[in-house]
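Quick start: read one record
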Amino acid sequence: MAFERDVPDPRPDRPTSPGDLHIVTEPRVYLVGRQVVDQSVVEQFLADEGAAWQTDTEVGAERLAEMAGRLCYMSFGKGRKSNAEYLGHIIEVGHGSVLEHGVWNFIFTGVSRSFTHELVRHRAGFGYSQLSQRYVDESESDFVEPDCIAADPELHAVWIEAIRSAQAIYCRLSDALFEKFAAVPDKTLRRKAARQAARSVLPNATETKIFVTANARAIRHFIELRCNEHAETEIRVVAAKVLRIMQQEAPALFADYAFVDLPDGTQEARTDHRKV
């Protein structure tokens, strides 16, 4: 769970003064969507092909990945019987294309704009919808403070000073620009025009929210690159949270990863089956 340092939880009661900063120290990851298999249509396909097949998993993405793999060789009812055994072999031999058929939907909150700048570099197999700073008022936004700054009182004070200044200037610019665009009759368009210009002074530390859709192969690639000791700390923490969720959600596709403690208190994930 995310928590805020030296201030009360801003949800649902959020202070309205620009001077009251909400400092987020840990991201939240929500798994909000997963696939459902239409078994009646699967049975129709099998009947049409004169094939019979049963699997022992109820996880839609695991069922679909196995089905896709068996389709390649029309091996329904043959060979490896359990889903975990079948997908374990798929991962071992690197037949990763069938993992692209399993898709999940996440919401990430309590993350910084620095984080999303890195996240959206992951293109193949990912889809994104992010909070708009053009439409959403950032005068009461949260901010994400790096642990290495928060742990040092002097650096923390410098960071707080910079954040307070940026937020105060954003508010001044936003108000002044709203008046500057008084000739625009539509107040929604006036606010958008003001905020899209005023946001130029907001720091990368500004908290944002992003809806993420990704398939199993893309998630594995993300974990291998970002849940790694060489990745930036914030994205490494998020990648570890995603992996923990996916190991519960679809163990046949993610159980091969093991966590290893790092000196900074975070963890990285390792597997013998990279780049599946």
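The longest strand covers residues 103-112.
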